[in-house]
Amino acid sequence: MATAAEGNGDNNWWVAKLRTYDLEGGERVLLAPSYQMNFPRVSPDGRTVAFIGGVMSDFGSVGGDVYTVPIDGGTPVNVTPGYVGSVTSIAWRGDRLIAGIIVAGDTGTATIDPTPRRVSNVRVAPQPINAGDGAVALDARGRTAAYVSQTFERAPRIEFGPLGAGRAVTHDNDALIPVTTARDVRWTNEGYAVQGWLLAPRDAAVGARRPMIVSIHGSPAAAVTPRFVWSGTIRDLLEAGYYVFQPNPRGSYGQGAAFAQANHKDFGGGDLRDILAGVDAVEQVAPIDDERLGVYGHSYGEFMTMWTVTHSQRFKAAVAGAGIANWSSYYGQNGIDKWMVPFFGATCYDDPEVYDRQSPIRSIKAARTPTFIYVGQRDLETPAPQSIEFWHGLVAQGVPTSLVIYQDEGHSIRQPEHASDLTRRIVDWFGRYLKAPTGDGV
Fold this sequence. Notes:
This protein has helices spanning 233-239, 257-260, 270-285, 300-309, 327-333, 340-344, 352-356, 384-396, 416-434, and strands spanning 2-4, 17-21, 27-31, 36-42, 48-54, 65-70, 77-78, 86-93, 96-103, 106-113, 118-125, 129-130, 137-138, 144-149, 157-162, 167-168, 180-189, 192-201, 210-216, 243-248, 288-298, 317-321, 371-376, 401-406. Helix content is 19%, strand content 33%. By secondary structure, it is an alpha+beta fold. It is globular, with a radius of gyration of 22 Å. The strands form 5 sheets. The chain has an 8-stranded mixed β-sheet, sandwiched between helices. Strands 12, 13, 14, 15 and 16 form a 5-stranded antiparallel β-sheet that branches.
């Protein structure tokens, strides 16, 4: 049992079908839905296939409802309809499923009974858990588990025991000192319940007003969940004295299928309004200087950064990495165009208007925010011409900007010397325009 599609390349995942294979080499298509599938799992009695289904924007970013279908074929049944959360992994134990879940920004486990279509035994906490390709490594009865757990303020450790009540069995990372204190921030906007994480510098003085960077996640179907801040840009920003706000606006996992699909045909619309409302909520609970706000994102987060600086004057500096300025030209440039159809409702050739009106370049004359742009030379997912196009537009409008294209890099900047250079440039750019509380800000 597997999800599969003919041909090579990441693009095929969005059109993969659920297939069965026998030991003699036979193959049969069991299901070919319009949505994406992940974690196909056959029940112990061999009669039923369960899988996670939903509109997903990246293979490794899993979230959706759980469906079952008879292994001999038939109509799939959603066994978690209306569940206000996202299922991220599943494993059969008897006639039930143990699921990894995201609920708002928290993660945990739940038991799913497919027959009455019921979710029970929900256990969530502000700490991600994972083991192999699922949330937990279960015993045969599904009662005891081993898993890796971590938070923003506690480094990863292995825990073991009953689901929801495991105890630490490793202590190798106990001495690591966190660089942040985290706060779960929740707000409502336009009828949606929204959540995000506010990270404060560990040494932030009580009451002292600080600048803040809004870091917008990519995918867009994803969610920020607690992860120990080992290294990288977020750590460097915290060490430079910034608060960092990581929102999960509409389009994110964790609030159910309707919330995850609420940005379809509306990229940059409701999700930006959710983020701006989230900044307001943060300023009610933390000493943030509203005159020193920055925005940062990579991939879809970079599109959101480009969209933000062409639709809001609230931010005084921006960093946009590996993003999309023009959805119409992007459709013909990238190597994974299949992901776009579920979100836009049609191909660019069938409905060019929906692509055009969500393109930041169409609003470039409204841009005023100094913006640093970077991209990998060999990025097939968000090709460099997209970054060049937006940079050119900013130059034409007289907006302070800088563009770096990293040689031989792909969608992520991985070479150590390039990664170090990029982080330095990001911190310096924000320091120049936000007057960082520590560091030289050059």
